Amino acid sequence: MKHKIKTSWKDQMTFDSQIDNHTLRIDTVAPLGTDSGPSPKKLLLASLAGCTGMDVVSLLNKMRVPFTNIDIDIEADLTNEHPKVYSEIRIIYRIFGNELNKEKVEKAISLSQEKYCGVSAMLKKNSPITYSVEYYD
Amino acid sequence: MKHKIKTSWKDQMTFDSQIDNHTLRIDTVAPLGTDSGPSPKKLLLASLAGCTGMDVVSLLNKMRVPFTNIDIDIEADLTNEHPKVYSEIRIIYRIFGNELNKEKVEKAISLSQEKYCGVSAMLKKNSPITYSVEYYD
Questions:
Q1: Residue A65 C-beta-side C-alpha neighbours within 13 Å
Q2: What value of ipTM does the predicted structure carry?
Q3: What distances in angstroms separate CA B10 from CA A53, A68, B46, B61, B133, one per listed residue?
Q4: Whose CB among A42, A86, A110, B91 lies 3.0–4.6 Å from A127's, allowing a Cys bridge?
Q5: Secondary structure letter of residue A50 according to DSSP
Q6: What is the dihedral of CA B116, B117, B120, B125, to 10 degrees?
Q7: Alpha-carbon gap, residue A75 to A39, rounded angstroms
Q8: Most A CBs within 10 Å: which of B11, B13, B15, as the mutation test of the A interface?
């Protein structure tokens, strides 16, 4: 299977990526850009959040574990030297629900990180990824 | 330096990532999702396009190489087995301009791929990245 995207320069540091039916504006902050969209590197973190988030939702549904909300916070350290890469990525999964089955939640997250999430599998070849889980009513 | 993003589950496979001042909707296609935003993995390719695109614009400006447009097409092959990762990523840089200095354009692209683009440096730890350049008036 192939994935294809087209990206066009607009002005200064502004680009539009055409991803299937969606146009994603990418930009950077002043003085180089005009902050009209997210900056490129952080899209890696959004990609990771979406990938593992969808896994966890799917797996919790399959395991019949009800939840009311999921927040995923990601923090990453950037190296100082070029090329500036993430030296470490930390994920906090915040799972909301009543009487959550923590064992199943942790199984779902572990399955995503170890087996299913392709974005995590790719990024961790360069950037170690650690995670923790927090529970909320 | 640290990068931080927050991502919240909305419904089904829909997530909103808060990236600084920007909210990025992430979703997947039917039957699991509602295609209300790009799918997670392809955001890696948009990240790569934006990163190398900004490098090339900056470097061409510094080199005083005028251009009228830049399109960046990216195609990536996905593995069949979980975790599904990109086994190869191919980039086509389409550079538009009159009497372009091809040597300088190729120097700019090569500097991005070999030295400056952190997204490329990270992704190529897993996925070999190749590129070609095409010129248009």
A1: 22
A2: 0.97
A3: 11, 10, 23, 42, 41
A4: A86
A5: H
A6: 40
A7: 15
A8: B15
Query: Residues 115-134, chain A: which have Cβ within 8 Å of B?
Result: 115-123, 125-127
Residues whose CB falls within 8 Å of the CB of residue B61, separated by 6 or more in sequence, listed in order: none
Residues 38-67 of A with CB under 8 A from B: 38-51, 53-54, 57-58
Residue pointed to by tokens 């990762």: B85
Rounded Cα distance between B44 and A41, Å, is 9
Indicate the SS3 state at residue B124: coil
Place of tokens 């030296």: A87
* Residue pLDDT, tens place only, A40-90: 999 999 999 999 999 999 999 999 999 999 999 999 999 999 999 999 999
Q: Distance between CA A96 and CA A102 in Å, rounded?
A: 11
Euclidean distance between CA atoms A90 and A124, whole angstroms: 11
Cβ atoms within 10 A of the Cβ of A106, count?
Answer: 14
pLDDT digits (tens, 9 = 90+) for B108-132: 999 999 999 999 999 999 999 999 9
The structure tokens listed for A13 are: 């540091």
